Amino acid sequence: MDIIRLQPNYANIMTARHNDDPRLARLSKICLALPEATRAIHSDYADFRVRKKVFAYFLNNHNGDGIVSVCVKSALGENVDRASTQPDRYYLPRYIGPRGWFGMRMDRGKIDWREVRNIVELSYCLAAPKTLARLVEAELDTKLAKTARR
User: Fold this and answer.
1) What's this model's pTM, rounded to 2 decimal places?
2) Does a structural domain hold residue 39?
3) What is the predicted pLDDT for the residue at 29?
4) CATH number of the domain residue 91 falls in
5) What distances in angstroms separate CA 122 from CA 2, 6, 23, 131, one per listed residue?
């Protein structure tokens, strides 16, 4: 005879907590506006992917560290530069920091959403296939040109 133990679904409890977080809602809007981007919510984090490759994480007290942040891929050495020059805003996340990622704190004062959008778009371009990255880069170039004309 098989015994089935019913346990509460902690993932659903944590998902409900995430869905109520306005930082995740706004980050999701930014990330999901990118071509073919998807989101998956897990127990204490959410990941954003393009064709199965992660380009951003929303971490909420991940592994009990007490930090709420967005983590993104960066160009070679940029992660270390950011974390060392502005340690109150940026840090190297456990496990992925040594692989070129950095985290931007979202739990310390006002969030600069333009900067969040910028680092997410750059990370997306590093993770996405070249055809999708070129679409985003072209859009960024168009925005820069419009801004320069003003």
Assistant:
1) 0.83
2) yes
3) 97
4) 3.90.1150.30
5) 51, 44, 19, 15
